Amino acid sequence: MKRCPAGAAALLAALTLVACGGDSEPTETPAPQASPATLAKANAICEDFLRQTKKLGAGALENPPASILTLTTERLIKPSIPLLEAAARRMQALEPAANSSLFDLYADLYDPAIVLAEKRLEAGRAGDQNESKRLENALDSIGREQRQAARLLGLDNCDVDFQSVLLASLTE
Is the pTM of this model over 0.90? Predict the structure, then answer.
């Protein structure tokens, strides 16, 4: 894992400026789109991540702990970190073949998500509900940005709110 949230933030800012448009014409040529083969591999990674996310949520309510904070921290956040790390490694391994700054942005956004999830784990273990909620909101924000990049890339299997899927899988 590269863990370069500053670089991802800079790319995200650039994406936001491009996506918002403006009165002037763009001065740069758009980045090349990733190849269909690379996008197919990325979609397969997201499909696997989705399957694992659902599986993680399905067993989380067995013998529930005394508090919701402990449940979310130990049964959802903690086991989701290795899933995020594996997806990040696999996606970031595709970056050279993708040869697309937008794909790089999508793949690199896993890094700040992992950092925030680790901080959320720490906050939950410390019993800090306010910090836990703040970090969950930050994770949600990164997820929205990542879904936007996935949508622009045509990564249908990656244009998924994995946090919502995880919560929905609790009752399936």
Answer: no
